[in-house]
Amino acid sequence: SPATVLPPILSDSSFGGAKPGTAPRNVQVRPLSSSTMVIQWDEPETPNGQVTGYKVYYTVNPTLPMASWESQMVDNNQLTTISELTPHTIYTIRVQAFTSVGPGPLSAPVLVKTQQGVPSQPSNLRASEVGETSVTLQWSRPTHAGENIVSYELYWNDTYAKEKHHRRIPVQESYQLTGLYPNTLYYVWLAARSQRGEGATTPPIPVRTKQYVPGAPPQNVTGEAVGPTSIRVSWDPPPAERSNGRIVYYKLQVVENGRSDSEAAVITLNATSFVLDELKRWTEYRIWVLAGTSVGDGPPSYPITVRTHEDVPGDPQDVRATYINSTAIRVQWRPPLEKDRNGIIRGYHVHVQEGQGLLNEPMRFDVLDGNAQELNVTGLQPDTKYSVQVAALTRKGDGDRSSPVIVKTPGGVPNRPTVNLKVLEREPTVSIELEWGRPTQTYGELLGYRLRYGVKDQKLREQMFKGTMVHSHKINDLERGVEYEFRVAGQNVMGFGQESIKYLLTPEGPPSGPPTNISHHFQTPDVVCVTWDVPLREHRNGQITHYDVEFHKKVDHTTVTDRNTTQTKSALLPNMSSNCRFFLPYLIQG
After folding, report:
1. What Gene Ontology cellular-component terms does the record carry (predicted)?
2. Which of the residues 122, 243, 444, 525 has the least number of beta carbons within 10 Å of its own beta carbon?
3. How far is the C-alpha of 587 from the C-alpha of 549, rounded, in Å?
């Protein structure tokens, strides 16, 4: 079929132009009176054809949509007047150019105050230099100054504190605003003032101050030991209002308590927690944190002190072992070195093993006093080598054992023989017989026996028996009424062994001797006081219970004049006849 040819589609420019590409330039507004203002501008830089007219928008509320603003059309002219305005009111004005195709973009807002004699708004407000806590502002004088400008009114607020500030500044075209917060967004605007009042302000311009080092340390720094060699540290960032920028790193610093800060280890990280590892056991550490921005370090936090957990201790020092006798040794030691204690020493384990091999299970003796530094170990074998080691204890358990030390007990002496005692005679004298058996442990050749006996708490007699054939001995003529002590021990080349001891209280009998040291004196002419001491020990034959005192005239031996029984060692004899001699025999009853 034949082809269909359509007419070409023409663009805006095909009809002789397009919408303006830019807004009108250099829009200027000044009040003619309190109800009238005059507005002028320049043609758009890119009109895209013949500008056919302009539309001037104005409002007292620039937040309204453009369709709600009041407007006035202007033919191909660059100046217009708007009347019937509200006096002493700030208006916002924007201008739009038209071509035959349509409207172009709107000009930037310009503000004017409907008050005769006040300046128009300053132009080209900008921040020429921005620091951490200051901003240098520059601007151009108002086009229409009205009467002479007497000052500028500078306004600003910060987006964090939501506070508005105002400052009157001298007539100049730059100003350094100081006392600002670092890394904070501010909005700044400016108005000129004459004698007639303050003119319209510039639109607010945003200015963000530069970052600075944080003004406060990290908050809520805490530390917790999570093992013998590790501590978990956590913290919160500095308060947002004092961060002075974006926190890009933290420096965690740690040093043993008691050492200087300059010796601290520094860990740089960008998290708010960290586990410090490879620390010393049971050691106090001082820890602090600081935050940093791209500018540098902020102040450090107040140090916290954390101690790592206990661990098993190192080995005790200077372990020594010496024998006490053939079956006992003394073990002495010193605590582990301070750096190796790894906690509070709560006790020790003393390990004693017979010989140097593994033939016998080692014996363990528990010392539950952390301050103890010695122990006597008993119940060992004579003439035997022992290996001794000591380990310290903390709450975590026992640590390393010390290096073995060797000690040898000396050869032993015989243990106690068995002894029996029999009373053979009680009258007329006391006789006994001792019998003994061979010691169960002689530790070598048994050479004989030793017998020691006598009155208890008195010096004992000693009698030796050579060889092993004698196993008994008879003792005659023991004193009556006293306690005897008998001791029998075996003998080998090392000496006498342990003694077996027997006691015997002999039967009593009447005293065989008189009281001693008899004396008397007259208390009055007819009263005599007689005193005496007990009989000699070998004559007492028991416990003296009382005394009988008899007296009669010496010339008359048949008549007992009086008899006085007493338990004391003195007697008073009354009613003695004067110029007579009396005889006093002293009787004792056991």
Report:
1. membrane
2. 525
3. 6
Residues 6+ positions from 223 with CB-CB distance below 8 Å: 231, 232, 233, 285, 287, 304, 306
The C-alpha atoms of residue 515 and residue 46 are separated, in whole angstroms, by 158
* H/E segment holding residue 539: helix 537-540
Tokens 């640590």 locate to: 399
Kindly give the parts of the chain with pLDDT less than 70. 1-17, 146-147, 356-359, 552-567, 569-590
Q: What is the DSSP string of 129-169?
A: EE-SS-EEEEEE--S---SPEEEEEEEEEETTTTEEEEEEE
3-state class of 524 per DSSP?
strand
Q: What integer pLDDT is reported at residue 370 of this predicted model?
A: 92
**What pLDDT score does 566 carry?**
65
With H, G, I as helix, E, B as strand and everything else as coil, classify residue 13.
Answer: helix
Tens digit of pLDDT for each residue in 255-297? 999 899 999 999 999 999 999 999 999 999 999 999 999 999 9
Identify how many contiguous H helices and E strands the chain contains and give both numbers.
1, 47
Cα first-last separation, the chain: 173
Kindly state the tokens that stand for 125: 């407000």
Q: Token match 């020429």: residue?
A: 128
